[in-house]
Amino acid sequence: MKTLKDVISLKFKTSESEGVIFHGEGQQGDYITLELKKAKLVLNLNLGINQLGSIFGHTSVTTGSLLDDHHWHSVIIERHGRNINLTLDRHMQHFRTNGEFDYLDLDYEITFGGMPFSGKPSSNSRKNFKGCMETINYNGNNITDLAKRKKLEPSNVGNLSFSCVEPHTVPVFFNATSYLEVPGRPSQDLFSVSFLFRTWNPTGLLLFSNFADDLGNVEIDINEGKVSIHINVTQMKKNRIDISS
């Protein structure tokens, strides 16, 4: 395929921070790869190199963050020659590719959800996508529908299921005034707590609990982006323990 214009759109959701969403390449040095890296969306594009290899066409653009939140995210890539619009969740970024070529020349298949092992160092260091995609559209072709009706050749590598498994975890959102209160466990010698959290705020109280019989309290908070644990024990000489990470 040799195209001057491309429109690629899809939605994805995942709890993984790394993974190739789609990939295509050609023998002229052309390639296009959309992938997640450190939970950010990265588009790598090269419209080819000249025979001397002196035209540096590699272009890489990063957008978004925290995209491994298992929520649906929408991506649209619109290309006309070297002009690209990359839209993530309605936020559009416009850029021009490096080099001097306008056509994307892909000799091999386009893969969604991963990339075939090519022997290149870049191919075996990349993880395949793990999660869900829907409404995949490539230059007017509804890829999701074609794959489901097995109209693609070759179609599937590995196990694909046309459903999306929801995670068992249930997140809780807190605003500046809300908190969750649970009953304590009296006559227990052990205090144990574990949780995952995500926030944009550098400061905030994560957990607080009084010990029974006025024996002290424990507090976990974020202070200037660091997690701190404060344990106050009234019966000890050194009655305050502070741990920061």
Write the layout of secondary structure elements.
Blueprint: E1 2-3, E2 5-13, E3 19-25, E4 31-37, E5 40-46, E6 59-63, E7 73-80, E8 83-88, E9 91-96, E10 104-105, E11 111-112, H1 121-124, E12 132-138, E13 141-142, H2 143-148, E14 204-210, E15 216-223, E16 226-233, E17 240-244
Task: Explain this structure.
The chain has 245 residues and is mainly beta. The model has no long low-confidence stretch (mean pLDDT 87). The chain contains 2 helices and 17 strands. It is elongated and about 80 Å long. Strand 3 and strand 4 form a beta hairpin. It has 2 domains: 148 residues, Sandwich (Jelly Rolls), CATH 2.60.120; 70 residues, no CATH class. It has a 6-stranded antiparallel sheet. It is 4% helix and 40% strand.
- Mean pLDDT value: 87
Tell me the major beta sheet. Answer: 6 strands, antiparallel
Strand arrangement, largest sheet? 9-8-7-2-12-13
Radius of gyration: 25 Å
Q: In terms of per-residue confidence, which ranges show pLDDT below 50 for 5 or more consecutive residues?
A: none
Protein name: CNTP2 protein
InterPro entries: ConA-like_dom_sf, Laminin_G, Neurexin-related_CASP
Pfam families: Laminin_G_2
Domain Laminin G: 1-164
